[in-house]
Amino acid sequence: MDWWNHVCEATRTLLAKSGVSADEIACAALSGHSLVAVPIDRDGKLLQEQVPIWCDMRASDQVDRFFDTLSYEEWYPVTGNGDPAECYTALKLMWMKEHEPEVFSRVDKIMGSKDFVNYKFTGRVCTDPSYASGFGVFNLKAWDYEPAFIEASGLPPSIFPEIIPSDAIIGFVTEQASAESGLSAGTPIACGAVDNTCMALGARGLDEGVVYTSLGSSSWIAVTSQTPIVDLKTRPFVFAHAKKGYYTSAVSIFSAGNSFRWIRDNLCHDLTGEDAASRGIDAYDRMNRMAESVPAGSHGVLFNPTLAGGSAQEPTPNLTGGFLGLTLGNTREDLVRASMEGVAMALRKTLDILLSQVTVSGEMLICGGGSKSPIWRQIFADIYNMPVLKTNVDQDAASLGAAALAANACGLWLGYDQIREVHQQEDIKLPIQENNAVYEELLEIYSDWTDSLAGLSDRLTAVKRRK
To answer: Domain Carbohydrate kinase FGGY C-terminal spans what residues (predicted)?
Structure first.
């Protein structure tokens, strides 16, 4: 209900600040965070106030049982579900069935995050292919649920919602939803899509090989292709695209902007707080200037940004972060730049996974909050060794993708080519070859260090658990 209430508040605020009449809204659509299981009963009553979101990992025992009768090697290439299996919705529901049987016995349907908000708007229960592809029981090639996977989960097939296209109108704003949200009753609501797919669409991911980096709290690199990119060793994660027959395949790190925020909060106290604000100090602006004062390679300091654990593309989920190469001669400026370089190096390692299987377009669009930093964009260009593009869309790519779905649903657009026209180039950073030469050498050290750190992190985790 927090999601619904805040969507309503944000919608009312947007209408008020923009001065646009609700009657002028032709259609609305949502981008929603993935791998969520919202249960309702036969009467449409919400059965839980809090539900597990994407990173909930409680279902480890259920994963073991799920793969008793079904091998991972059968499941992953079909679903493309490359994050830890316990993150996916079906496994979360298996956990609910075992640990909350009274709740589970009353479940009629489960929905994703944006699907629940859609339900509150229209009263209709449904989802789209992109969100369903994160349920753990979706066949990417068949573009539908896979009965064998539902059977392996022991879940009733009936609890999974109807799948309709992302740009289909699912219904219309009810009188009650109108009173709460400020949208006019009767406004069409499109089905929408999962955030990864909306962002891929909004980031111009309309053709084979178009790639972007989302640089937020966590970070991922995604590519659009007509073949899902799956690999049992490196496990990219895949979602169905809004365009049938296309997929968005991605690799990730769990800590990017939030690691940089940790650097700010723990190494740059003097740049934060009310006193700094009263003196007109912007912490991130100062940190950018610190990084600019240090050459590529940060005077021999490397940073591993894995402060939130390792992703599926990293050696172990227990991977921890750290600095390497510190001496008495290093400065805070070195550490700040090293933290930016470390995020880019971690992402470059995951980018190489995609590059081994698909040819990408000639430039990397970067979006998300971190894209605002010119020095960070240059570091990415140097470490990726490819042009890094920033456009006016910035961190609003997912919103643009959702808007495009709405525009197609109500007939304002016919297709998605106009997304390209919305993007206006603001800056492009070309790789500086001298810097790239430094980084290519350091990447080998970073890679070896990460592998060593992974083993030590596993041992350290074992000690922590014993205590």
So the answer is: 212-409
CA angle 249, 251, 257 (to 5 degrees): 130
What DSSP assignment string belongs to 258-314?
HHHHHHHHHH-GGGSHHHHHHTT--HHHHHHHHHHTS-TTGGG-EEE--TT---TTS
Q: Where are the alpha helices (DSSP H) in 356-409?
A: 374-384, 397-409
How far is the C-alpha of 451 from the C-alpha of 456, rounded, in Å? Answer: 9
Digit-coded pLDDT (tens) for 337-375: 999 999 999 999 999 999 999 999 889 999 988 999 999
CA-nearest of 46, 48, 132 to 89 is 132
The answer to whether the CB of 291 falls within 8 A of the CB of 298 is: no
Task: Report pLDDT digits (tens) over 41-77.
Answer: 999 999 999 999 888 989 999 999 999 989 999 999 9
Cα separation, 94 vs 77, whole angstroms: 21
Helices within 124-227 (DSSP H only): 129-132, 147-153, 175-181, 195-202
Q: In what order do the strands lie in the sheet with 364-367?
A: 237-240, 247-253, 219-225, 211-215, 364-367, 388-391, 425-429
pTM: 0.91
Residue in the structure block whose two tokens are 């700040």: 336
Pairing of strands 169-172, 188-190: antiparallel
What confidence category does residue 193 fall into, taking pLDDT thresholds of 50, 70 and 90? very high
Residue whose tokens read 């049982």 = 65
- Give domain 204-394+424-467's CATH superfamily: ATPase, nucleotide binding domain (3.30.420.40)
Q: What are the domain boundaries of the chain?
A: 2-191, 204-394+424-467
Phi and psi at residue 74, to the nearest 5°: -80, -35
For residues 115 and 107, what is the distance between their CA atoms, to the nearest angstrom? Answer: 16
Question: How many Cβ atoms sit within 10 Å of the Cβ of residue 172?
Answer: 19
Looking at residue 163, the DSSP 8-state letter turns out to be: B
Q: Which two tokens stand for residue 11?
A: 């919608």
